[in-house]
């Protein structure tokens, strides 16, 4: 669709993916017994102590993903021409990444209504991107002078 993605789109897509990865980390850190059940499958003596360091690792990943997500989102806002476009791109990326990660890790499925909502969000994203000029804030400043 878009032959060349601008840097704000790349940052926004990255921020959305990192937000989904942070959510996954939070679910693994604070979730009921998913890590305990999975760690028992990998340890032959049925020791349940492996899940504690895994939860701590997921907690560190949660903090790291959220820090990187906000960094990428800030960069997307700085390089983007529209904060609305950046926000919608990040949100769409987050939803789609969450769906893919949920399917791969937890075997989750989503209803047709959910996918319809995502499709409408993506259509809105395309409308926003096609309706906004693709000039950077630095180029806009040069034109004003």
From TrEMBL:
The keyword Transmembrane applies. InterPro entries: EmrE-like, TMEM42. Keywords: Membrane, Transmembrane, Transmembrane helix. SUPFAM superfamilies: Multidrug resistance efflux transporter EmrE (SSF103481). It comes from the Eukaryota. The chain crosses the membrane at residues 50-73, 85-106, 112-128. PANTHER family: TRANSMEMBRANE PROTEIN 42. This is Transmembrane protein 42a. It comes from Poecilia formosa (Amazon molly).
